[in-house]
Amino acid sequence: MACALALQACGGAQSGGPASALAAEYPPRPAPVAAEPHTGLRDDTGTTAAPPDARPTLRKVVDTRQCGMVAAAFAAPASWTDHSEIEWNYADMSRPMTMTVAVKNPQGVEGFWSFPSLDLFWSPQAARIYRPGQHTGGLIFAQPMAPLATLEQFVRETRANVQNLRFVAERELPDAPRSPELPPSANQRGVLVAVNYEIDHRPVEEEFHATYYVFDAPYDGPHGRVWQRDWGLKAPGSIRAASGRLDALRPTFNAISASFQVNPAWLQRVQQVDRALAQRFDAVIRKDFADIDAAGERGRQIVAQSNAFLARIDQQIVASRQTGGGGVGGGRSQNDLQDDYIRGVETTDDPTLGTSQHSLMQTYHWTDGNGGYRDSNDANYNPNHTENGNWVQMPAASH
């Protein structure tokens, strides 16, 4: 299913080999070096981190699940290492693919990260089905949070294992580019959070950035329109350096980001998979609604059959009374009591109607003589204390 679902033959878009084709189409851009290229970067512990090599090299992001296609390429300092991963889960119809890219200086703490998006949803109706934090279809069910609070929580979870995490700055970035993945919305905004922490007792600083979004998405199903609030973080990423050295490396990090290029053939493949999954999702939703309708019809049939059964029992009881099968002295027979039990009611002596029936789930039954009734399990309950009228407690009908 992994490659068949993509709706393309393996390797069909990679003539000439993935590395050579992509390198020819997207030659690596020169990456600026750090402000101190010849002396190295000295962190607060006195150790020296090697400066980035001025010669950028081409790096590839390979999608092994889509037949080994090259998904993207970027340039990074030659002496730095990179690790990328694309994960597919076709059960996550709302977000079947995630991509992670990490570029690090192996001789220091410097690093560049691109994380998968954080996609959440909320609906008051769905609160009856999902619990907060539950993952479903690639999304997380949670009530929307403020933009900076959302990024702060993302940082806490992403850097949960570091030492002495401290938030030192945060701000919204109103002029940040809008995410091309989202529909136009005034609720998109860039957010940035800066933190300090320690790695093996070495102080570091890291900046996290993302595009926060929130919008209401309609779904038109067989039973009308339902609204769902989608929200989260698109394109979250971070840059890290030894404490006090982040600004010196910022040109290098910016060059890595600017050099990132997506393979159009791979993007087309992803879009085809998305469309196939969307069609499957709609089919599943339609089947679910049909199953719900069918279950409702079966339930109505069962209720109708039950009511018909009880009606026949009532007819038999009436016939039994008319032929002398009632209780002694005109009282209620054992058949009457069994009928009450089957239907979950208790028959009481009613000063207005002669008798009236009330739920067996309640022990004490009161009437005001004008058609009003109150039922309770509290032996001390007396509606005369709280309501107008002359309320009388009704005993069980004489047997």
Structural features, described:
Strands 5, 6, 7, 8, 9, 10, 11, 12, 13 and 14 form a ten-stranded mixed β-sheet that branches. A three-stranded antiparallel β-sheet has the order 3-4-15. A three-stranded antiparallel β-sheet has the order 19-18-20, with no helix packed on it. The protein is built from five helices and 20 strands. Helix 4 packs antiparallel against helix 5 (334-343). The chain folds into two domains: 4-275, no CATH class; 329-394, no CATH class. The protein has 399 residues and is of the alpha+beta class. The longest helix has 59 residues, at 264-322. Strand 18 (364-367) and strand 19 form a beta hairpin. Helix content is 26%, strand content 34%. Mean pLDDT is 79; it is low at 1-9 and 11-50.
Please render the helix and strand layout as text:
Elements: H1 18-25, E1 41-42, E2 48-49, E3 56-63, E4 69-77, E5 81-88, E6 97-104, E7 111-114, E8 118-122, E9 135-136, E10 139-141, H2 147-158, E11 163-173, E12 189-199, E13 202-221, E14 224-242, H3 246-259, E15 261-262, H4 264-322, H5 334-343, E16 345-350, E17 354-359, E18 364-367, E19 373-376, E20 392-394
Helix pairs in contact: 4-5
Write a concise keyword list for the protein shown above.
399 residues; alpha+beta; 20 strands; 26% helix; elongated; disordered N terminus
